[in-house]
Design goal:
The structure is a single chain. The chain has 560 residues and is an alpha/beta fold. The chain has 17 helices and 17 strands. The strands form 2 sheets. Strands 3, 4, 5, 6, 11, 12, 13, 14 and 15 form a 9-stranded mixed beta sheet that branches. Strands 1, 2, 7, 8, 9, 10, 16 and 17 form an 8-stranded mixed beta sheet that branches. Helix 2 runs parallel beside helix 6. The two termini are 46 Å apart.
Amino acid sequence: MQQFSSAARSHNLTRLQDETFDVLVIGGGVTGAGVALDAVARGYTVALVEKLDFASGTSSKSTKLVHGGIRYLPNFDFALVREALIERGLLLHNAPFLVQPVGFVLPIYEHDRHPVGMRFTTPGGIGLGLMLDFGLWLYDRLAGKRNIAHHRRLSRKQVLELAPGLVPDGLKEGFIYYDAQTNDARLTVTLLHTAALRGAVIANYAEVQGFISENGHVTGARLSDRLGQQEITVRARHVVNATGIYSEQVESLIEQEPQVRIEPSKGVHLVFAREKLQVQQDAIVLPETDDKRILFLVPWESRVIFGTTDTGSGDLDHPIATREDVHYLLKHLNRYVTVDLSEADILSVYAGYRPLVLRHKATTHSSASLSRTHAVLQSPSGLVSIVGGKLTTYRRMAQDTVDLLQRRDSRKRQHPTTNLPLLGSVDWADTQSELTSQASALGLDETIIDHLSSIYGTEIREIFRLIEEDATLAERLIADLPYIRAQVVHACRAEMAMTPYDVLARRTSLILEDRQRGLGVVDLVADLMAHELSWSPEQRARLVEEYRQVVQRQMEGERL
């Protein structure tokens, strides 16, 4: 039985109850996954629990970028950019199949005065091109030896060749610079799978209800199994709160004043068909918005992701894109593209919250902020909270967190994840051609092969084995998308998928890419899962209905 299969979950819950761990990580987003992998790679025994499914919050709601953050340059936030660029380079090396370089076309128009969020301008915009050229040169330099490629200045003609969907009127010139993109939910699942193979004991749908303490020091947590309706107690020498937007809530369970205050910021994204916007291989940066933000059009397989907003908070468990959010994005997109887009052109919408740190208490028990992007805090009870940061810097956040644990234990610090390949990465470059040939021999077409390769790397062999056992698993789930039935089975056997929503929203991205948001295929997915997980007809029907209700609630929120 695989350590990270759906069947292993109940076994893992038993281990959580029976064993004592060095480290208990609360939170199954990318940060918690990073902490679990870093800790187990340093020789700690590790448990990780997540109250819902892995990557069900912020870690599946990003712009899917691994980037330094060009918008921080006008604020002279060079330390933040430098750290993120270094982490970008490490991810490209450690997960080459999952993180790919992408060019970003930055057009410059005559009316632009605050491109890439610049808070200042020049009279008549004179010299802005030179300033941007210098800023992008600095962006390249901050990446050091891990830079992807040097930026280039583009003529008006070259901009339109790379981004033919842009409005040509008023276009003066442009630039192209380079960052990277990933599938955020798949990155999180891959991190967890890698940690599980190294011995981490992991369970989703296990919610922390409270902490257990000895002599005022946190020594474990009380869990509620949301699927099996049982209560579990897990004990650990160190407890890490990596719950993102819920960090303050989790810390308050100790019944002490929280060390941190989180100010969630909602980000909304729209998904379009790629051909609708004539987006090619490169992403496009919309240079200017009314509120001096920066918006991205990012190619993502056959779709394009556009966003994001930066608005206030709401129901953290059910982030909703309002009509105001959608109209804001459409207004600025229509300013720069030749197609007149309306809500009818949107395939899907998704919203999530960034865990912005508003403040943290400086006490003798709190560690210092270890970078300008995040903070590792220690409460008087010994609970460690990792807060702030972003997708790109998850590994550094995890490293800083486990460094604190090693200082507690008076152990020499080591940083094994700096060059630790994630599952599917070893020998990826050397085996791509061989794996492509195997896929073709199984009857998979080029789009499916490219899709599977970018998700599984060398682990694509596990998909091949499933198809060899049952040829029907090579069939597509939806005609115009490259997802196949074998991915559903694999999600159960190797990725701890417990519900149709887990498969449609996180093990795959069908909920974002499908025009029907998975509603037309949820019954087929449930049938495949029911066979794998021995669901009763009643259980299958209930889970399908739950999926339909969640999607319907999201769509109703967008129509408010």
